[in-house]
């Protein structure tokens, strides 16, 4: 992708109504992209669109990123609205904030499907369109996908995303499609709402992570930035 945007570029972001996804959407709109965002919460998506003044360059689509029919429909709607697809950002995800030895299994299935199956479904549904544009796949992982934490099932899902990114890159690079894994450290987003409080110490902002996403996406043609780990200063692991 070129650093100079013509206004023709189109990106699709899952979990795009708040947090990192919404911050990436704002940055890309400012860069001249047309942007589709999807998520489960239609009210949240509507509020996000209204916050931005309902620009014509923004498309909001309610759907479940862990349901393939929803993902295919979202990709199809994006192509129908904007005519092309240059980038997908698999951002949707959440944590149950418990452990394999002491947690409640009731929430694990949804977390694993959203965090692991969701990005894979997005890749499968979008790859043909991305071949045509020599576009980019961005997977939002986590530092937890590089560092072992006792009993952490969320971390295990992000280890899977780390592997998915490189496995995908090795397949799609021959088609001219780039793959970037963005692995944030502790970041102040709605991710922590179900935890009950923010973790101690300095936290990154969603906008700071969005800067890294957009930076990786906007490298010159032929440059494939593959892994970006972003921690706040003071986070030791």
Describe this structure in words.
The protein is of the alpha/beta class. The chain has a single domain (10-230), classed as Rossmann fold, CATH 3.40.50.720. Helix content is 40%, strand content 17%. The protein has six helices and nine strands. The strands form two sheets. The chain has a seven-stranded parallel sheet with strand order 3-2-1-4-5-6-9, with helices on both faces. Strand 1 (10-14), helix 1 (19-30) and strand 2 form a beta-alpha-beta unit. The radius of gyration is 17 Å and the shape is globular.
Under CATH, the homologous superfamily reads NAD(P)-binding Rossmann-like Domain
Q: Let me know the number of strands.
A: 9
Distance between the termini: 33 Å
What amount of the residues lies in strands?
15-25%
Unreliable stretches (pLDDT < 50, length at least 5) are 1-6
CATH class label? Alpha Beta
The DSSP helix count reads 6
The domain count comes to: 1
- Rg over CA atoms, rounded to whole Å, is 17 Å
Large-scale geometry: globular
Helix content range of the residues, please?
40-55%
Mean pLDDT: 93
Annotated CATH architecture: 3-Layer(aba) Sandwich
CATH topology: Rossmann fold
Q: Provide the spatial order of strands within the biggest beta sheet.
A: 3-2-1-4-5-6-9
Structural class: alpha/beta
Helix and strand succession? EHEHEHEHEHEEEHE
- Main beta sheet: strand number and arrangement? 7 strands, parallel
């Amino acid at each position: 992708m070129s650093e100079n945007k013509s206004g023709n570029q189109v990106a699709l972001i899952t979990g795009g109504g708040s947090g990192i996804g919404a911050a990436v959407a704002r940055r890309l709109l400012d860069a001249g992209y047309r942007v589709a965002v999807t998520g489960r919460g239609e009210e949240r998506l509507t509020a996000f669109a209204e916050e931005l003044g309902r620009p014509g360059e923004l498309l909001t689509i309610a759907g479940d990123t862990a349901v393939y029919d929803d993902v295919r429909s979202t990709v199809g709607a994006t192509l129908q609205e904007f005519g092309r697809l240059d980038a997908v950002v698999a951002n949707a995800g959440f944590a149950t904030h418990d452990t394999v030895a002491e947690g409640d299994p009731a929430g694990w299935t949804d977390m694993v499907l959203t965090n692991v199956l969701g990005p894979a479904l997005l890749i499968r549904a979008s790859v043909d369109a991305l071949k045509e544009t020599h576009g980019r796949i961005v997977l939002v992982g986590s530092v937890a996908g590089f560092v072992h934490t006792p009993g952490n099932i969320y971390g295990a899902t992000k280890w899977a995303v780390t592997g998915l990114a490189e496995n995908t890159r090795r397949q799609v690079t021959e088609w001219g499609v780039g793959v970037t894994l963005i692995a944030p450290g502790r970041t102040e987003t709605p991710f922590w709402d179900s935890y009950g409080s923010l973790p101690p110490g300095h936290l990154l902002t969603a906008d700071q992570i969005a800067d890294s996403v957009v930076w990786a996406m906007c490298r010159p043609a032929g440059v494939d930035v593959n892994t970006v780990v972003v921690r706040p200063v003071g986070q030791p692991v």
